[in-house]
Design a protein that fits this description.
With 373 residues, the chain is α/β, with parallel strands linked by helices. 31% of the residues lie in helices and 25% in strands. It has ten helices and 15 strands. The strands form two sheets. The chain has a nine-stranded mixed beta sheet. It has a six-stranded parallel beta sheet with strand order 3-2-1-4-5-6, sandwiched between helices. Strand 11 and strand 12 form a beta hairpin. The chain starts with a helix and ends in a 37-residue tail after the last strand. The N terminus is likely disordered.
Length: 373
């Protein structure tokens, strides 16, 4: 049976065909050996027609036909790249038809939705993975190992800045769809400190700021958060939809520090600057196809009946933290928090390297958040 599984490909439906699904996800199936796209789900007929031709995909469905897709017998798993407020519904519906789910982050908008997703997966015996691609990415996993080895001493401080320009009209700026800086990009900073500190925060505090631009009428322009961790460690980060493109974090220990540049990117090189006792070493990690790694990993979990490490609990914990941060912004007070301790955390054993592809696909009725390709 094992020999058969090694040759079998997990058949995916890609649900939601926005910018990230088109630019990052769809091209990432080709380099994998165990994953293939067999169906597309979108309410945009032009996207369905053009992308099915581009990738040679036979079956396409509107959102109204989602159930037909799930019950077709042609699909083993769905990759959900829908707006955040739809993650729960489309995950639960897939799980109820015994279809495995790889869902983009944030897992959902509320803790209750996350819990419903976990329950549906458990009740139906399907795999549920949240798409934390950096849990498979070599530079971030090497950072985990450097910190665990105590090369920079006892960990004391985490600091991160993740900013980008998001143009007016982008879905990330809509409250009703689960937009906002913390859900969209702050989640990367939150997740990073959790896997770097290998721990869960106990208290959070946040403030938000906006200059009154029309594009930020529904969500904050930027937010700064402070997270307290056990053993009196502090983490801070700032995320913004109104700043130049920056993606970096730094962890400070008692003997040195590690800075990672372009820390959260899905393409391009990542760099480490490791300083110990005043001496700095630089290391460049070449670009990899992070989405191909993600699909490979999840398909392996299905084929080998393994529980994926970025589990529903991982997604739930981040959403609990984000909700607590918004409560803090609303009240001006710190908020105590108690997360679930995950069964496992990412280690370098999970690293998967697929060669990067430089070609950018032509986008169909979609644009990056900045509006610039």
């Amino acid at each position: 049976m094992a020999a058969t599984n090694e040759k079998r490909k997990i058949r995916y439906a890609v649900v939601g065909l926005g910018w990230f699904a088109q630019e990052a996800a769809l091209p990432a199936f080709a380099p994998t050996e165990n994953s293939e796209v067999v169906a597309l789900v979108s309410d945009d007929p032009t996207k369905r027609e053009e992308l099915s031709k581009q990738y040679g995909i036979q079956r396409t469905y509107s959102y109204e036909e989602y159930e037909d897709c799930l019950t077709s017998g042609e699909v083993d798993a769905v990759y959900i790249a829908l707006p955040n407020h739809l993650h729960c519904e489309y995950t639960v519906r897939a799980a109820n038809q015994a279809i495995h789910v790889l869902c983009e982050k944030p897992m959902a908008v509320t803790e209750q939705e996350c819990e419903a997703m976990i329950k549906a997966a458990n009740d139906n015996g399907v795999k549920l993975m949240i798409a934390y691609r950096l849990h498979l990415e070599p530079a971030n996993l090497e950072a985990v190992e450097i910190l665990r080895s105590q090369q920079i001493g006892e960990l004391r401080i985490f600091n991160s800045v993740f900013t980008q320009q998001v143009e007016e009209g982008n879905i990330r700026l809509r409250d009703i769809t689960g937009g906002g800086t913390l859900y969209d990009i702050g989640i990367y900073c939150i997740n990073a400190v959790r896997y770097l500190f290998q721990d869960e925060p106990t208290e959070v505090f946040a403030v938000a700021a906006s200059k009154g631009e029309q594009r930020f009428s529904e969500v904050e322009e930027m937010a700064t958060a402070t997270l307290r961790f056990p053993n009196e460690r502090l983490a801070t980060f700032t995320c913004s939809f109104g700043g130049a493109k920056v993606s970096t974090y730094q962890v400070v220990g008692t003997k040195g520090d590690l800075r990672v540049e372009s820390a959260y990117t899905w393409h391009g090189d990542l760099k480490h600057y490791l300083t110990i006792d005043g001496e700095t070493q630089e290391r460049t990690f070449p670009a990899h196809n992070q989405l191909a790694a993600e699909f490979t990993y999840f398909s392996d979990c299905i084929l080998q009946d393994k529980d994926p490490e970025p589990s529903g609990t991982e997604g739930l914990n981040d959403v609990q933290i984000i909700q607590a941060l918004y409560r803090s912004i609303g009240t001006g007070q710190p908020v105590r928090i108690k997360n679930i301790e995950p069964d496992t955390r990412p280690t370098s054993d999970q690293a998967i390297e697929h060669p990067a592809t430089e070609e950018k696909p032509e986008l169909i009725n979609a644009a990056p958040p900045s509006g610039k390709s």
